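Write out this protein's structure.
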Amino acid sequence: MDESGRSGVKPPDVDVRPLGPLAVGAGVVAVVLALTGFYAVLGVVVALVASGLGLLARTEPRTRRAGTLAVGLAVAAAAVAVVWLVLTLAG
């Protein structure tokens, strides 16, 4: 230990690997909810969560591919949900 009381050992880095599968899972749930029509608004909310997790996952090289997939799924889910909502409200 040094005089400040610290041992000089660097704490381990935060493991962000679970963010990739979580983001992809949220993206898939968002797409499924958006396709139902009734839960399309909830699908948009889950798509926002999936895109946030996907962007966080893209910061680490090991999870970059999963983060990109999650953001793509979230964008697709949001687009499908908006189309369902517009068609429902217009008809």
